Amino acid sequence: MKKKLLIAMIPVLGMGALVGSGFSAWVFGDAATQTYGFGGSITVTPATTGELELACTTNTFTITLDQNGEGNKDATKGVTVNGLDDITFTLKSAEQTVIGEDATHKVQFSFSISLAYSDEASFDKYLVTTATMDTFVGTKVSNADLLLGAGTLVENTLTYTYSAGTWTFTLKTPTDTTDILNYYGTYEALTSGKPQTWEDWNAMNQALSGDKFTVNLNVTAKVVAK
What we know:
- It is elongated and about 70 Å long.
- The termini are close together.
- It is mainly beta.
- Residues about 1-25, about 30-40 and about 45-50 have low confidence and may be disordered.
- The protein is built from 4 helices and 14 strands.
């Protein structure tokens, strides 16, 4: 049988969020109050290769670092992520050898999730991903055959439906947005961990303000002979 191979491989998602603060309600026994805000955005460029086309929605999310109550030293409290919603993206094929009744080829799909930081050293001084986030980032699929109805590639994480030549995927992100990032567990004054004085907070603010915490979704789709 004559084989036909087309590959479309793009990083379809870079969720950028400025990691820094949104600092509020930090109380260290003095009267100073500071508030900072940041946000991020996603820009996705569709990719087309032959009969396959990948496209993704855009999304934004923010990370807020707070004290979670006066004098709170619990490293698992005070980090909140807002706007990290479920992600949808599509894969289109107009090739009848793939989607027709007499299809001689099929579409195979692979994907993975990774994290990137504009300043990983500063991030690691103050923040750490949780087990929930580590599981999400560790989600991978290799060369799964796509069906023409509905399917599940990763239970409770990645599902898809098919209609008129288009596969529509839904990637579920962690739903408990307070269990994605924690403060680094070891506290060292002016160096790492959850701030316990104004000086600690100021050092963290200078280290993290303006940084980016990025979640990358990498997708590969290819047409192969059955």
